[in-house]
Fold:
Amino acid sequence: MRLFKKTAHHDKKALIIGIDGVPYTLIREYLDRGYLPNLKAIVGHGHEIHQMNASIPDISSVSWTTFATGVNPAEHGIYGFTALRPYSYALSFPNASDVKAPPFWNILGKMAEGNASTFSLRYHKKILKSRRSIILNIPHTYPAYPVNGILISGFVAIDLEQAVFPASIHGYLKEIDYLIDVDAQKAHHDKDEFLRDLFSCFATRQKVVQHFFQEEPWDLFVACVTETDRLHHFFFDAALDEGHPYHEAFVRFYRELDAFIGDMVAAFRREYGEDAFLMILSDHGFTALRHEVYINSFLHEAGFLKLNPDGQFYERIETGTRAFGMDPGRIYINYRDRYPRGAVDKKEGDRLTEEIKEALRSLRDPAGTPVIDRIYARDEIYRGPLAEQAPDLVCLPHDGYDLKGKLESAGIFGRSVFTGMHTWHDALCIAPQGIAWDGKPSIADPADAIMRYFTD
Amino acid sequence: MEDKREKVTIKIPKPLYANLKEIIRGTGFNSVTDFIVYVLRDIASSHVRAEGEPLTKDEIKLIRERLKSLGYL
Structure:
């Protein structure tokens, strides 16, 4: 039997609600339309709504890890859902054990010793007493790891037993048929059934969140709703189109989300008062998808990438390849000293980088519209000891052009079942008034605001 | 919020209750019931999570499928 850790009662309490992939602009529009009365009351009640930048690239594993650690990918080490093993083309799937910086809940819980980051060093001496946290469904926290409190992993958690800490909560989750994530494959062939699953998964999620909110002692409570992101991937074209067959369901989901947030916030304020810390945020935005853009097909057609027709994923890369892409807009130079069939010497890197940038800037859709909005070189955006693992270039597309890293596409442009795509510039943060953001906030900033609340 | 009617009553000896009340004083537990539920859940869970264990082939297959279903692979 594991004995409980004594936790002193603290007066400071923080509730953080994550809403995966919810765009600032859509929330503004829905607030104006009167769809979200509870959020409207929160925004008009000591809180401000901000448009926020996501991580680069703007996908959940990177963005939520940046949120959790308060540092950029060159410090936490996560650049995507996929990576290549060192000095190989073997695909790997980074998970929570690959995160090299402590999450702020483990700084607060005094469990980050021996795993410092520039962020944790700013705060660890200011934490006089360990704080207990409940962390529910944050992406990229799998396998679950020890926290001072409770953690249930979010996407891409596979095995529920490995997705919980402490192990003792597994029984409760199994009992209520907790689902880590809805089966998105269903949306590929039966959208109605997928929607039913989405509502049902959200209902169970709410039950679990409310259970731990009420039943466990905590100082920090962080819960994330994943279903919004799933809704957006397959139904974002229905968000504003009142004539769309799924518009009613889309808005109904948002009304349920609003009611859930309203209940949580009301309970939070009832229990801990008006001065307790409340934040609601997303990890990236979403917009309607016009074209999927297969970046490897572009690199292939432009002569940068050569592929063997046989083999698995990046093992197909042939001798003579100068660059290849990984999801969503990451581009890696095939350096001789970095990959088995590398073709590029270090001294050629700068010239090749410029060549690729120029080619990308000239990429137009079939109607002649430019696809790429910004291209960043590694050292422009990443700072830290793990910058060597970073992509050499990262592209951010114009809204509507969803960059895809797959290798087997037939052409550069296409469409599939997806109707929504992530955006970097349109994440959301609803935060207490008076936080001194340095310009437009980015996803690394909320951790600092939360830690300042607990340490000031 | 959760329906309180989903709970059942369990009786324990009064001296034990008093003892537990003392134990949880000054901790984050709001009540003896909270503490008992916490401890019983730990006992009820018989498995031990393997720390740092690499992902199995089946897990990797499932991760690939999940990522593919959302267009990330």
